[in-house]
User: What shape does this take?
Amino acid sequence: MNNLQKENRRTILIIENDILLQKTYHLALTNAGYNVIFASTGTKGLQKLKDETPQLIILDLVIPGEMDGLDVLEQIKTNQQFVKIPLFILTNLDNKKNTALKMGVKKYFIKTNVSINTVINEINITLS
Assistant: This one.
């Protein structure tokens, strides 16, 4: 792929510390035509968000560091620069769905209950 093709791809930021999940989603989303960037902590995720301005964010609620996923979500949704970026939650916590949806999350997925293809289909719909 040349640089022009890469520049024309939409970028997805995934804030997730599970390396295997990162690799799996990177492969699937790259094959689906997206640029993918990762952050393993909330602080790094917010920095990448400022540096890269992705078209969509996928966030895990259970991440290491001083900020959990809900803290990161709050930072994103209260910042006028980022509030309009669609945000998906991909987590193992099923008890935070109502809270996250009230905070403006577009989709809430439980990792063990969703296929990568379903997530990609929802990304395609959201970004179309």
